[in-house]
Amino acid sequence: MTNTDNNSAKTTTATAKTNAAPVRHDDADIIAQMRQLINALRIHNNAYYVLDEPQISDNEYDQLRLSLIELEEAYPDLIQPDSPTGQIGDSPLAAFSQLPHDIPMLSLGNVFNQDDLADFMRRVNDRLNAAQQNPEYEIEMKLDGLAVSIKYEYGKYVQAITRGDGQVGEDITQNVKTINNLPLVLDAVADIALLEVRGEVLMPKAGFERLNRQAEESGGKTFANPRNAAAGSLRQLDPNIAASRPLAFYAYSVNQGLPETISRQSDALAWLKEIGFTVSAVQVVKGLTEAQSYYESVNDSRPELPFEIDGTVIKVNNLDLQSQLGFLSREPRWATAYKFPAETVMTTLNSIEWQVGRTGQITPVGKLEPVQVGGVTVSNVTLHNFGEIQRLDVRAGDTVSVHRAGDVIPKISRVWHEMRPEGTTPVVLPKACPVCESPVVIPEGEALARCTGELFCPAQQQEALIHFVSRRAMDIDGVGERWLISFFEQGIVKTVADIYRLKDHQDELVNIEKLGEKSVTNMLTAIEASKKTTLSRFIYALGIRGVGESTAQNLAQQFGDLPALEAATIEKLQETPDVGDITAEQVYNFFRAQHNIDVIQALIAAGVHWDKVEQVATEGLPLDGQTWVITGTLSSMSRDEAKVRLQALGAKVSGSISAKTSALLAGEKAGSKLTKAEKLEVKVVDEAEFLALIGE
Ligand code: IVH
User: Fold this and answer.
1) How far apart are CA 658 and CA 643, in angstroms?
2) Which of 67, 150, 490, 579 is deepest in the core (most CB within 10 A)?
3) CATH class of the structural domain 627-695
């Protein structure tokens, strides 16, 4: 497109708008060209994604797309509403708006082996009558992307929403519209008033690698894995950026508008494919053995697939049976995910380093020869404690297997002793702290080695500072970690109280390289603002060993104000929910150490203050005297909200399960706490029961 063309386009556009003239000859031409390109792109998208029989090369495809984009850039007012380029001509959104789902978007339960799958099928049978036993199942791939609900009205694309919390999602209509293989017009269903299709938006492996390569070349940010890349692309407020990302949509269900003649999930998917959607492979199976062998064949085919999957999804095929089986607390009884085992990769453990944490814990960190595990590069692996090193019998130089399940941090799952090279030596616990050289001890009853340097140890001082300003502590977001470390290293800030004296060093600060005047002002404003806090934040910010956020809240609630807490005896402290013998002693000792008393006095003198805690009178409330623990993900509210609701009913909320716990509120993906509760025979309450309890 030449400049003259561009200019003439602009003038014709202006006339067209002011005169509302009939379409002039050249506009009609442009529109015809655009329609041709759109049709060609639709045909080739379908050939590539749906029929899996590409008719042109990727380059040719890109050419077609580019020609359309050029036309659209030259004639923005002629852009066709169903253009797949996403050059909608609108400016970026300020924020996504929230939209409710007509039908909640739920999640799936998980199984990991054949026995679990057999249990799942047994539970299905238990709910079916004699004639319905051993129903047909259908197996799909579990695509590793993001769930999206898409609506069509009379065959025209109108809306796309993210899963969100399952009830309400974000309106990503503009971004999803730019996905290449998503049909925007469904000629075959122009008579269906409302069609809702759900599926997964993902980034194919090849596109992901291309995107990261480009980002690397231009010094931009790379994505850890295709799933993150897809999520990041959908979260773009500017649809032109989303349009430039290689995304694809794979449909997996019809939630509204399915023709009544279709009565099986496998037929629904065949129908989706017929009307123009991309669907992944589908297999109908009869029973456990067939299901298991298909699952294994899908697992074997993973390297050849163009996208990442993390398992299969097995669904009761008959749609009437699906409705009959229904849901149990946010998960369908008629379907489950059958996940693949976490990917395991072998590499070399190059060395073991010892790191000093905030409270002096000395943890071994394994430095690995970097490897790709589950789509991310792993070069560090936590070894937890010295006992773990002994249990694994691992040495620097060993070959190890590393695995990573979902978002979980990498772990060593196996040490290949038979491959140990000559000349390795057993790991020894350092006798002195690697930072301050104070003696290292393993206190009785604890697994972790500790530096005895306490606040004499620079590593602990530095970590204490970072913890103090962190979001859930004093929340001083103007003081970045990097600057804090720099102030610490220059001796401007030694203890947390010095943060409130930074304003006396304004001249020095402004002179620090790269720290501009504006940053200094912002920083000092944030520090001033943090002076008004709450007692529980303050207690948490002090960084007392064993006092996490929830314990800090319980201490604040129990004692109401700082002097009472400072004066508390060990026995009195033990009455606080969550506070066991060891923590009680640590809190007691903390308030008896002169350097801690000095810091607290300095903070209060600097103006740090809070409102006295309203100690809730719980007498007569339904849950008075009970201690609850919350675990897992709740779909209707955050855990913090659930905690407030429980407290409003008089319950104490603790962070750990013990025999004294009255009940465990367990959301989805509850882990070790659920296991522990079951072992200790603590009552377990699911979300539905909890909602009933709080009257919702
Ligand atoms: S069906 C009632 N089918 O898995 C829920 N889900 O853990 C029905 N997913 O959020 C979901 N591939 O995003 C279904 N073939 C597939 C899927 C699939 C991936 C995702 C989906 C959902 C998550 C559930």
Assistant:
1) 18
2) 150
3) alpha beta
Q: For a pocket test of ligand 1, which of 107, 139, 280, 317 has the largest count of ligand atoms closer than 8 A to its C-beta?
A: 107
CATH 2.40.50.140 domain locations along the chain: 344-419
CATH topology classification for 98-339: D-amino Acid Aminotransferase; Chain A, domain 1 (3.30.470)
- What confidence tens digit (pLDDT) does each residue in 285-333 have? 999 999 999 999 999 898 889 999 989 999 999 999 999 999 987 789 9
Residues 6+ apart with CB under 8 A from 177: 84, 86, 88, 157, 160, 184, 239
Smallest CA separation from ligand 1 atom 16, residue: 142
> In the chain, where does the domain assigned CATH 1.10.150.20 lie?
458-610
Residue 142 annotated to the active site = yes
CA of 107 to the centre of ligand 1 (A): 7
CA of 108 to the centre of ligand 1 (A): 7
> How many angstroms does the Cα of residue 590 sit away from the middle of ligand 1?
49
3-state SS class at 361 = strand
CATH 3.40.50.10190 in the chain is located at 627-695
Residues with CB under 6 A from ligand 1: 106-108, 140, 142-143, 147, 163, 200, 252-253, 313, 332, 335, 337
Instruction: Provide the whole-model pTM.
Output: 0.55
Q: Which helix (H) or strand (E) holds 151?
A: strand 146-153
Q: Which two tokens stand for residue 110?
A: 């998980």
pLDDT tens digit string along 242-290?
Answer: 888 999 999 999 999 999 999 999 999 999 999 999 999 999 999 999 9
Domain 344-419, what fold? Answer: OB fold (Dihydrolipoamide Acetyltransferase, E2P) (2.40.50)
H, E, C per residue of 11-78: HHHHHHHHHCCCCCHHHHHHHHHHHHHHHHHHHHHHHHHHCCCCCCCHHHHHHHHHHHHHHHHHCHHH
Q: In 513-568, which ranges are E strands? A: 532-533
Terminal Cα-to-Cα distance of the chain (whole angstroms): 61
Residue with structure tokens 């859930």?
Answer: 472
Ligand 1 centroid – CA 334 distance (Å): 12
Contact present, 490 and 465 (Cβ < 8 Å): no
Q: Please give the CATH number for the structural domain made up of 458-610.
A: 1.10.150.20
Q: Catalytic residue among 142, 339, 411, 673, which? A: 142
